[in-house]
Amino acid sequence: MKILIASDLHGSAHFTKKLLERCAAEGAEQLVLLGDIYNHGPRNPLPEGYDPLGVAALLNPLVKELTVVKGNCDSDVDTLISDFEFVSEAVLFIGGKKVFLQHGDRFSIDRLPKNCGDVFIYGHYHTGFIEEKEGVIVANCGSVSLPKGGTPRSYILLDEQGICLKDIGGNNISYKKF
Q1: What pLDDT sits at residue 44?
Q2: What pLDDT is recorded for position 42?
Q3: Which of 42, 45, 107, 137 makes the best surface tag, with the fewest CB within 10 Å?
Q4: CB atoms within 10 A of CB 138
């Protein structure tokens, strides 16, 4: 099974379309979004193609393949345009590994969640990476809409063999085998 994980769309219908194209090209069976889906947030510029209702129109048909973790810019009113639920965190099991998912506003590489398992993936910082800390694979999927710190627009592809950070063109940036 392939799972595509992304974060911090911040209302960009333009980059949501590109992400869904990558999801199809990768053959991902599930899409996990780690928060900040519609709103750009007070510290961020408006992303290219800012259209929160357009993002909802793109994501709502995917409700069966979609898991959405709530981010710090996601509000209760966002659920009114969404056919999917926002959860505070999620856990996946793949390739014999427990994968803990959270937006990143409460946990990070510097503050790992208790009992997070083998892999911890988050967003929030808009900077993609894969590292290992205290025996846990820690990854940030970056942002396809508003990357920061000179990092590329990125997402994570997760399967039974490992975790891969990719740019929006589908090129490998970093890979960690399970």
Answers
A1: 85
A2: 84
A3: 42
A4: 22
Instruction: Spell out the alpha helix ranges (H) of the chain.
Output: 13-26, 52-59
Which residue type sits at 171?
N
Spans in the chain with pLDDT lower than 50: none
| Spatial CB neighbours of 32, under 8 Å, sequence gap ≥ 6 | 3, 4, 5, 6, 66, 67, 68, 69, 90, 92, 101
Residues whose CB is less than 8 angstroms from the CB of residue 138 and which lie 6 or more positions away in sequence, other chains included: 109, 112, 119, 120, 121, 130, 131, 132
pTM over 0.90: yes
Q: What is the CB neighbour count within 10 angstroms for residue 31?
A: 20
For residues 174 and 164, is the Cβ–Cβ distance under 8 A? yes
Task: Please choose, from the candidates 21, 17, 14, 13, the residue with its C-alpha nearest in 3D space to the C-alpha of residue 54.
Answer: 13
Rounded to whole angstroms, the Cα distance separating 94 from 42 reads 36
| 84: number of Cβ within 10 Å | 18
- Position 69 scores a pLDDT of 98
Q: What is the pLDDT of residue 123?
A: 98
- pLDDT of amino acid 45: 87
Which of the 8 DSSP states describes residue 113? P
